[in-house]
Amino acid sequence: MEAREAVYKGVCRFYGAPANLPVQVLNLPPQELRLSMPSLTRYRISGDNAAERSPEPLLRSNALLATGVCAFILKLPAFRSRSSFFFIYIYNSAAVKRPTLWSSSPGDGEAIMSLSSADSWPEGSAGLEDESFARDSGATVCLDDSLTSLQWLQEFSISAGGGQVAPLSAQNQSYVGGHLRMAGPDAPASPMAADPASMGTPHTPSKPTSAAFCRGLSPSALPGPAAYGRCPEDVDYKSDPHVKPPYSYATLICMAMQASKKSKLTLSCIYKWIKENFCYFRHADPTWQNSIRHNLSLNKCFIKVPRQKDEPGKGGFWKIDPQYADRLLSGAYKKHRLPPVQINPVLQARVKPAPLALSGFFPAVGGQGTLSVSPESVQLLQDFEQATGADQNWDPSLSSAASRAGKRCSRKRKRTQDRGLKYFRRCSSPLLSGDEQEGLGPLKGDFDWNALLDPALTGELSLDGAGELSPIGHDEDLMVHGTRIGRPQQWSPLETSRDGEENHVLSQTQETSLDFDEETFLATAFLQNPWQEEDDDKREQNPQVDFLCSSAVNIEQLFDLSDDLSNNISSFF
DNA sequence: ACTTGTTTACTTCATT
DNA sequence: AATGAAGTAAACAAGT
Predict the structure, then answer these.
(1) Is 0.70 topped by the overall pTM?
(2) Where is this region: Disordered (predicted)?
(3) Which of A46, A241, A245, A508 has the fewest C-beta atoms under 10 angstroms from its C-beta?
């Protein structure tokens, strides 16, 4: 089955639309996509989460979207009380990715989206100046604005010449000076292949010694986007075993969780992700794992999710507590210190300071071989770092001061007390079941971090405070290469036969509670290709998770997940 | 035996 | 100097 059909069916299923609606598909060849819309206010570039979305449209007129990326447009016809609407999917030859653009406003009835080849667009036209977009004609990609967009953007590798789109595994990415580098055709296919320590240059980093790498700037003096990641000497953390990444353990954990796309991660998966993405930890003394565990236990931002009794495997799962995401977003925490960077003393002299530790994670705009990340994304992770550290001593009995003062207290006794406190805290998480969270207020309406922290767990979806759903789509016409494509006869119909059971995900009234962005995200979440989390033996026990990591979209599996999403949403309401 | 999780103690460094 | 954040080390318990 063609991927586009799978996408369409998945979308139909999600929206409760009959799958036999005459779908209209327009295939777009590999090309640069440039969007030109009279009204841009209703268009957004979607991140994988609401928090990544700017209140202002990130898309500028004539913005250059990508180079050599295939795309197709699906038009979902009107059904029931819905207007028709469009989805635009960007994809490569192997897998369909989530939509990156959509139209969502009735006020944009006149909106016309035109997609045209790069040849017809002069260099430096409007949009290129926008930090959300950058053109890159080499083997690397500068795309998009959102942190989480990296999850799907990293799947693309654009060749320099012919606009070929080659699948790029997540392993072809690496943090370069903290930048996510999109590897070119010659890049090693595996992180181990890029690992000097595994290529005959054995090196075991010394026990980390503190060395300032990114110090000297006040956190409040955050540079603008253009200043991020301007490390003169890029450090590829994925392949460089010498330099300890300039991220706190909490940040590393967060990154692993965020990258995984899973609602929760096991400890071993966190280890795995860190080792795969930061060479330093592949060779470092394993005591860092102790620190990870220490951080998970101590840091209030992380919640332990016990394994089900019938669930095989060792240990529980970990997730980020949205309560703290909420707090951090409200600006309750202030960061006092930048995470230090550990560096092998031998190489210390070679590595020059970066402006900020965080700047490593948020690359420079338009830099060669880096991805562009918006200031909003920068702020998000900064906020996270603030929150993960600033509140460790929430409970006075757990504060370091109290700890120091109480050194002579009985260890056993303290442990018992603290466990009780921790248990109470975790039970009061809004993530937990109704019984467990009794007495807790609802999440705030504008709490978008849920989507970021837990994109697959729809039960944690935020709702628009206003409860307003932007009517999606409408019947605006699309213009491609100057040709109006909105009329049915210009679309190639897809056979869509399967819709045996009613599977309405949301009733109409329920739908109105969901922001369209959330809705679209949910409808397309299954299209993503998240980082592989489960161990091999675990996958054998749960084969349905495999498709998430494979490049091919299996329609049956897709529907299964769609069902899961539906159930989650239904239970949420 | 090993992994996972919790806790305490301590050190280092930055900020106030 | 005091304080706090972050990291390191280690003891210990529980589970697989």
Answers:
(1) no
(2) 186-209, 390-417
(3) A508
